Amino acid sequence: MLNQLFGLDGKVALVTGGATGIGRMAATGLAGAGARVMICSRKLEMCEKTAEEINGMGLPGSVEAFRGDVGSDEGIDAIVDDVRARTDNLHILMNNAGATWGTPYPDYPYKSWEKVMGLNTQGLFHMTQRLTPILAASATDEDPARVINVGSVMGQAPMGLGTYAYSASKAAVHHLSKILATELADQRITVNAIAPGPFPSNMTAFATGKEETRAKIDAANPLGRVGRADDIAGLLVFLSARSGAYITGAVIPTDGGLHVETIKTLFHTE
Hints:
Layout lengths: L1 H5 L5 E5 L4 H12 L3 E6 L2 H12 L6 E6 L5 H14 L5 E4 L14 H28 L7 E6 L13 H21 L4 E8 L8 H4 L2 H10 L8 H12 L10 E4 L16
């Protein structure tokens, strides 16, 4: 029963930005459930190192790496060509590649919007668009293909001071995921977004990479900690396997309760 619900034997997945952070956590979980996982990022050596390390864990699935840049039209075309050269099937697409930019409000530059919004939303859209034919060809009524987009708690709650373009882009990812869920349902492709809170990664190293700042982030979270690799791995397996076959258009928070955190003492008189 567990393997039927959560196994990914025979499935092929692509994780963009899969060398580090949430992408690496996802790739590990998918390979652990038996999938053949392709990971890509702009830094090929790092991607290959990640694939080698995950494959060294003795998991039932496998990971393979290639260079890929979601930040340009040509880069997306190259990724699609590489995927098609490697496989005739694609059951799972995780759009994880992204960028951030943090600057105080008076100094926030015009150019950051183009870079961040372009990669986080436009790149995600066109990657999905161009891989839709192979996803649709791999799908069935009982077992749809899956697109899983990486949003953020900052796209749900106004807590990302100085990250204007990033927070706006992730809110756009959440809404775009719902639009694409409607668009692609008749092709038997589900589209969902996950909205992570703080997880250890290169992007959050300024806050999670040092013991002192990490302790503050832990204390600020309702569940008292930042995310762990298993939190991402488990969610990706759930959404990608038979267990998630009837879910589409959802934005799933993975943040320890941050998205519902409120001012607890507003009307307390003691």
